[in-house]
Amino acid sequence: MKINSPLEVYKYLPQTNCGDCGEATCMAFGSHVIDRSLKLEDCTPLLEDKYKKKYLELSELMAPEIREVTIGVGEYAVTVGGDDVMYRHQLTFFDQPGFALDVWDTMPEAELVERVTFIRDFKKFYVGRFLKLDMIAVRSTSGDPGKFRDAVSKVMENTELPLILCSLDPEVLKAGLEVAAERRPLLYAATKDNWQAVADLVLEYDVPTVLFAPDDLDTLKSLASTFLEMGRQDLILDPGTNPQGNMLRESFENFLKLRRAGIKEGQREVAFPLMSVPMTAYLTGGDAVSSSYWETVLATVFSVRYGDIMILHSIEPFALLPEMHIRDTIYTDPRTPVKVDSKVYEVGSPGKDSPVIVTTNFALTYYTVESDLASSGIDCYLLAADTDGLGVEAAVAGGQLTGQKINDEFKKVDFDFSEKTGHNTIILPGLGARLQGDLEDATGLNVLVGPQDSGQIPPWMEKNWPPGKKE
Ligand code: SF4
Q1: For position 454, what pLDDT does the model report?
Q2: C-alpha 57 to ligand 1 mean position (Å)
Q3: Which helix (H) or strand (E) holds 289?
Q4: What is the residue with the minimal CA distance to atom 8 of ligand 1?
Q5: For the chain, which domains are there?
Q6: Å from CA of 23 to ligand 1 middle
């Protein structure tokens, strides 16, 4: 039976409260293990011989319902699966879907290198971090083992991203493994026709593999049972991604059935990450833009339910950006507001005449305001007040942002208005206008109310800054 309370975890811990894990007590560590913000291995005493048995038992009892599978090695390794719930609001989804973009072995070398470089370097800054692509799927379109080996080698020369080796011909897969096995690539795929030969490769090279049985869950289950009997736990199941019509509905329902069987019905033989292949959109015969658009629709559908890893083709920004944003949104932990450190940030090179502006530490709010200020060339001090990740309007309504709180926040970081500025003025966000009197009382400073939308700060500044300026 799976463990899901800190007290149950505590029973297996050394119970010495030694603090090596960074927590004051073993019980506190237990709560972090339950919410997966810490790993069992962070309790180093638990790894000692005398606790080894308990560690192994606890690892078994804490294992996620859907197994985790790791592709690649080192800092670029991608782990997929790991979910415990059917619906995000029940806990959170773990291990966001791994996105692999394809290359193929009949591409001219210069094109292949250019595409790999694009995939490797593609990134989009979003609320304090970069959204990136994860893997490269190398497809054998030639059917020639030699060509495939050369293409895999060329990809490896240009990126350390994990690889998916794609062919239904075991000879071709073997050629790829001969050069890439050390990178622990994912094989795509074992089917009812080639499974024996692919199983031999999996055992020889010790790599994860996809089991592929389009629109046939019984065969998929049977393949999974066979590989499990061989001792393989690093499996990914692909029930097929039909791009259109009733068959798309069937694909979607197959994903639901597999996930329900893995989590709710305890069918361990299908409790593996699921692969979706949205690039089947290109089989519909549409033009390149329509196919790219439809691929994005499929990636969205299966990011929501329950694609753990995907192979994509389009590198158009209008396809990649929504795919990456939706994935990020679905896999953001709903229990933890996305926030930035609460402090006074310097935007540009502020001096004594620069404004001091207040916002909150909700990451989306902070980065929107910061970006509007920076792109308009407004040098200023920007306080990200600690509202526990709430935006301005909600924090004012809920009492997390008050005049006293803002005063305390400036004091907490020793922000001395008379030393830093020559104006003793604070600008409140428009959505916090009702705090103006409070803040004047708390700080004794002059308080101006800015616009509700940070995009309007530049024209507002023109009319209202420096303080005392008449409209
Ligand atoms: S390191 Fe282990 S034994 Fe020490 S306090 Fe943390 S959980 Fe307890």
Answers
A1: 95
A2: 17
A3: helix 288-304
A4: 26
A5: 6-62 (1.10.15.40), 68-330 (3.20.20.20), 344-464 (3.40.50.11600)
A6: 7
